[in-house]
Amino acid sequence: MSEKSVDGWVEVFTTGTDYEAELVRDRLADQGLNPVVLAHRDHAFNLTVGDMSTTRVLVPPSQADEARRILQSAPLSDQDLDDAALSSDPNLGDDDSE
Questions:
Q1: Would you list the DSSP string of the chain?
Q2: What are the φ and ψ backbone dihedral angles of 97, each rounded to 5 degrees?
Q3: Which distant-in-sequence residues (6+ apart) come within 8 Å of 83 by Cβ?
């Protein structure tokens, strides 16, 4: 697979929508990586096809393999998300009844 790079950054994801690129960026950032979003999208015309609609997620070359591994892994299940939300509740486990 040929690796695409932009000014020393490596492309790990490409999409036609800004929101999808931002979700991918957030997923990688949550894992400790340093992704950036590069949008070539022409918002004045709101194009959704061709090179003028491409939005890329880039990472430093040293993080490219890890980013691809994360993106190829299975997303969290609904149960995983529920467990994470419940475990982050500071009041969980308080036995004090008012």
A1: -PPPEETTEEEEEEES-HHHHHHHHHHHHHTT---EEEE---TTTT--SSGGG-EEEEE-GGGHHHHHHHHHSPPPPHHHHHHHHHHT-TTTT-----
A2: -100, 140
A3: none
Q: In whole angstroms, give the CA distance from residue 39 to residue 89.
A: 36
Residue type present at position 33: L
Q: Are 54 and 43 in contact (CB under 8 A)?
A: no
- pTM equals 0.68
Q: Domains of the chain (ranges plus CATH)? A: 5-87 (3.30.70.790)
Task: List, in order, residues 6 or more apart from 6 with CB less than 8 Å away.
Answer: 38, 56, 58
Residues 3-46: pLDDT tens digits?
676 778 999 999 888 889 999 999 999 999 999 999 876 666 66
